[in-house]
Amino acid sequence: MNERELIAFELGFDTAMYGQCVPEDATGLFCDGYRTGKRQYPHPKQTNRYILKWLQIRRGALCRDKRVDERITPEYLEQIDLDRCPVTLEPLTHSTGRDTDWSIDRCNNLRGYMPGNLVIMSTRANKAKSDLAFAEIVANGKCDEDAEGLSPEEWQRMADVVAPAERLADGEPPAQFLLGESYVPGQPYGLQAQVQAALFFGLLLYRQTKDDDGSIGQIYAATLTNKDSRRTFDKMMQDMVRRIVHQGRNWDYWSLKRPLRLFVEFWVTLTPSMRETIGLEIGFDVTAVDAERFRSSAPDNGLRPTH
Fold first, then answer.
1. Assuming Cys at both sites, which of 103, 141, 242, 271 could form a disulfide with 126, CB separation 3.0 to 4.6 Å?
2. Based on the structure, what is the number of domains in the chain?
3. How many angstroms separate the CA atoms of 167 and 170, rounded?
């Protein structure tokens, strides 16, 4: 049994384990796995939309002869889930048949289903993106008229959504600073940018509930052993509270010079072990994608990614 046959067998097994039906185009190995799963799980396991989407992704990948990274799990899909489409800003729906239903898109179609290359968006946004190249997405954002059912502003947000994956495709390291752009869960940002996102979300939560947010406490706890880190962290948080909580700033906070300078002053005081601790504590280690891992899996033909 080769790798592709094993993948089909395991997919059939999991399909039976979760009580789903055999698709019409199922292969023989898929059906063998399905029968094995039915015998072992006469009473199927309980399912949810993340498990169903995970099975759907694997079926689509098998048909396209694409690989699904083992880190793509139902838990990972839940981790990158969104309430609103990052492109259209509409609330996402589920299993309604409308174009607001959630869908999972590969930012770069030359890369497989792997952390850093998947993003959740509405079906409407996904269909509009289709196989467009990144340059075409950017060009649509500069037009004066709608294109493929999306406005220029929506195309600009689309470019922001897929830009981190495109940076990796060009061999560049993950973005280290957000500089005002929206943070999209699951995209390949460097740890510095991820810490920014954790701090920012923590302040937004504080503004809404007036309660301490866990992510802020975890980051602060990692700085307690270093006086300079604690001092610069306090300065940075005082500035964030003033600008975000009291002045109501949004993501453009990180495009301001003083906040970014305060963050850099804080970051350089951290030892490598402190940075590693923070990364683990705030739970971003699953979605982090480093340049070396990408280079080891990049195609050898030197082609630029297309969509």
1. 103
2. 3
3. 5
